Amino acid sequence: MSADILSQNEIDALLSALSSGEMDADELKKEQQEKKVKVYDFKRALRFSKDQIRSLTRIHENYARLLTTFFSAQLRTYVQISVTSADQIPYEEFIRSIPKMTILNVFDVPPLEGRILMEVNPNIAYAMMDRMMGGRGSSINKVENLTEIETKIMSNTFESAFDHFREAMEDLIDIEPSLAEFEVNPQFLQMVSPNETVVVISLSTTIGDTSGMINICIPHVVLEPIMPKLSGHYWMQAEKKERLPEFTSRLEENIQQSIVPIVAELGTSDISIQDFLMLDIGDVIEMNQTIQQPLIIKVGDIPKFIGQPGKLNKKMAVQVLGTLEEGKEDGE
């Protein structure tokens, strides 16, 4: 923004040039009206919308929480994992951005086609292995000289960690992740063509005193079948469907615990105001129904049942004989 703000000297020079004729105001207007050319890099095609990137970020935020819980239990030390960024870039650019020697775990995710890559910084990987071997979680970087035992420990650890990706994706699709390759040199790994668009989700990871990054690389071809489900509209509909049964059951439970008044009417009668004012103790009011007719039982102010008067355990009671038809009023 500051580059667009002119100083007072520049403003004075511009006004002086316009007044002296060195600059033509009409030409400046024409330049502004001309179509602006925007540079587009075809090698860096944007195949994911911002809405879809936000959905992927949300999924991986959930996955980061699952990983934090998993590694905390496995390593028995302080672990904190969180999403720092989610970007779409060419696969070649991602390969150039990671270390020349690093921990690369390639996973199959059927029924989706293609593979997903989990790149783990060697400092993080060695800190994890040191903790599992009984150490304090110190980190050394000798990834180019991994022994068979170290390779097996690391591959098993990250395969178990990626298994939680199934839970993070369950709202979109049921997948069965499995480790397909374990590699340390990115140059020997060619999952897709160099110009293929991939989404890279970077997870900031802290294990004890060691910090580093875990990058998850997902090619476009993997996500293509579920692209419509990555829209915000889908998530809102899913949340609405999720909340509806819970809301309904809670509403039913609250209704069942509600207290409502029940009144059994012995009958009704119509009298004049004058007769009402003249009522005294001992007077008799004639009802508009006989003792053989059933009583109307109201729930609140709504007639719901018919019954007959009686006694139960020396107390006055009403026995329910039946249910009134919907909308039927007393006296009908």
Automatic annotation (TrEMBL):
Keywords, comma-separated and alphabetical: Bacterial flagellum, Cell membrane, Cell projection, Chemotaxis, Cilium, Flagellar rotation, Flagellum, Membrane
One GO CC term, this protein: bacterial-type flagellum basal body
Keyword match NAD: no
Gene3D superfamilies documented for this protein: CheC-like (3.40.1550.10), SpoA-like (2.30.330.10)
Domain called Flagellar motor switch protein FliN-like C-terminal: residue spans: 254-322
Main location, first listed in the record: other
GO terms, molecular function: cytoskeletal motor activity
Taxonomy, superkingdom: Bacteria
Compartments where located: Bacterial flagellum basal body; Cell membrane
Cell cycle found in the keyword field: no
Membrane topology: Peripheral membrane protein
A biological-process GO annotation: bacterial-type flagellum-dependent swarming motility
CDD domains: FliM
Family, per entry: Belongs to the FliM family.
Record protein name field: Flagellar motor switch protein FliM
Protein's organism: Niallia alba
